[in-house]
Amino acid sequence: MKKIEKAKMFINNHLHLFQCPVCKNQFIDIKGYQLTCSNRHSFDFSKKGTLHFLLKQSQNEYDKDMLQSRRLIAQEGLWYPVLEKVISVVNNKNGVHLDVGCGEGSHLHHLIQKGLGGTNIGFDISKDAIQLAAAEYTDAFWCVADLAQSPYASNAYDTIFNILSPSNYGEFDRILKSGGQVIKVVPAEKYLIEIRNFVGKNNTPYSNKEVLDKFYQHYPQADRISISYEHNLNFTMWKHLLNMTPLSWNINDSIKEKLILEPFKKITVEMEILIGTKE
Ligand SMILES: C[S@@+](CC[C@H](N)C(=O)[O-])C[C@H]1O[C@@H](n2cnc3c(N)ncnc32)[C@H](O)[C@@H]1O
Ligand SMILES: [Zn+2]
């Protein structure tokens, strides 16, 4: 079956998980390759089997080249120890899961490979990222959508993954079922410290305090797991790491050249995993 037909079938079977991002009404129908709400707002399926919910084209800092580098780094396992912790705290492994700002899809795919069952949907505002996700991974449903105008139904999701991506706690609260979890992964002070040290030697150290405070405001009972490890890198992966991290966007070209020629053999990954539950 063609990917676009599979996508139609998925949506037909899961209409209750979505709502129109314009008028918030339910979707009632798929006509041809368009999903239509009761007010006749319609959204296109792509040949790759994705659904496009953006109301206007978005500007994105991540180009395809960076996304490819991020994918290679992900597939090489930079974040695997973090993802193993993430899956260990998911309460309902056979529930409905949503990866917010999923990028090119490798994290959600890895979670599925490690035993995440149920229904899995990933979305990102970047069309390039979602195209890459859908081209490689067929174990989840992928949408282009904006968290600020999200097309997800209320009280319908068991788990939200929010890995290194923006949050909207009001929206998370709306779409989660009662007892559902937000699992948010944020960098800690020493995350990629080897690169950070080059970016701004005189800068104050990176702090995630604001992000953590905001999370605890919304989920005062939140659990937290800290994780820290070093990951070995070969030269190729070092170049991809520099290419994919927003940190290196602030490095001028001569420093970047120097960094490329003096590769680090190990990189530090230090992160916080925050787990909030909707009452
Ligand atoms: C640092 S990347 C992380 C991507 C992926 N979670 C990962 O860890 O590889 C942040 C992602 O959030 C996405 N993003 C930013 N604003 C968004 C929004 N309003 N709605 C959906 N995704 C958004 C970006 O396009 C980008 O892919
Ligand atoms: Zn509508």
UniProtKB/TrEMBL annotation:
One of its GO terms (biological process) is methylation. Residues 92-182 form the Methyltransferase domain. Residues 18-54 form the 23S rRNA (guanine(745)-N(1))-methyltransferase N-terminal domain. Keywords: Metal-binding, Methyltransferase, S-adenosyl-L-methionine, Transferase, Zinc. InterPro entries: Methyltranfer_dom, RlmA_N, rRNA_m1G-MeTrfase_A_prd, SAM-dependent_MTases_sf. S-adenosyl-L-methionine binds at E104, G105, Y191. Zn(2+) binds at C20, C23, C37, H41. GO terms for molecular function: metal ion binding; methyltransferase activity. This is 23S rRNA m(1)G-748 methyltransferase. It comes from Marinilactibacillus piezotolerans. The lineage of its organism: Bacteria, Bacillati, Bacillota, Bacilli, Lactobacillales.
